[in-house]
Amino acid sequence: MIKKIITKILALEAKLALKKHKPKIIGITGSVGKSSAKEAIATVLESRFNIRKSAKSYNSELGMALAVLGLKTAWNNPIGWIKNVISGFKEIFNQNFPKILVLEMGVDRPRDFDKLLKIARPDIGIITALGEIPAHVEFFSGPEEIAGEKSKLIKNLPPESWVILNFDDKKVWEMKLKTNANVLSFGFVAGADISASNYKISEDGVSFKMDYKGSSVPVRLKNVFGKHSACAALSAAAVGVIFEMNLIEISEAFSKYQAPPGRLRLLPGIKNSLILDDSYNASPLATEAALDTLQELEAKRKLVAFGDMLEIGKFTISAHQALGKKISKIADYFVTVGPRSKFAAEEAVAEGMNKTKVINFSTSQEAAIHLKSIIQEGDLILVKGSQAMRMEKIVEELMAHPEEARNLLARQDKYWKNKE
At what angle do helices 227-242 and 34-45 cross, to 10 degrees? Predict the structure, then answer.
């Protein structure tokens, strides 16, 4: 009850602040890639403009109100929430209110997007990716309903607005028929307005050539990995183009881009190993992308620590089995965490993986202890799982410099550290 009251107050303050200051609003949705796109877009725009971005993954009704007002969650601290309400009121009259807001917009249940649009109606709508089995599909009838919910972002945009769509994702690209706004596409597939070619990956990050209207510039993303990270950069480039930035300026801005914590960051591990930390969350599409990245990188041995994927409802068994099959062809060692990931483990063994190298644990702490005992020099360990599986605890145990966990890993707030 108290949370609902706080949410209503902060949402009202956010609406009043937007009405007074009239910033340009960039709204980002999709089943995966929202945070990476947000960070890339903010990196490009802040090189020239006064902007504000969602902190962490603030994409719910409460989270977006906090993002608009430039506030952070107070978790279970009543005094903190009172301070937020006071600060939110002051923000309405802030003379230095940002000119551009970069906001994540997420949905867990039907009609969630309606609540978000009551707070803020974007001038630019971006849809990152949906995939065959979208994240948070558990409370929807299926992928089609969740796609329809997310398409609300672009349905009612006026003709002078802009929509930026992932050309590589068929379901996303089909949404161009649902808007009257201007459309820009991005992707690797030929035909995208802003495209990537000559993609390369190494331990230093990814590089590619970015093409737009016959012009090309090289892009290098240091310590950023995976094609989906390059796609996030392309979506950011599309935003830069809309704000009349040239490709060289955009490419130079990417030199400051960093992947958010827990999103495919490569970290030094114990015994001269490397950790591919993708522990923030997991969905089928995001896990496939992480496995593709693991496959692309060179290593003496490749290990996968995989925790349950949650909130995918009726797809739970088949999705975990599909990933188990894929992992069997990539990993030398497979550790799972949780009851659902057992389906992946069983499928990996059925596909021919040595059953002595496929082990299931109940908790991330147990898995970390086992991994510490088997890691060898030159190993590359992918760590992936849904938020509730707390896979970042594995990364903290395996990283060479755990004293840096606070700055490098997901869920390092006091709230999460005290939570089992």
Answer: 40
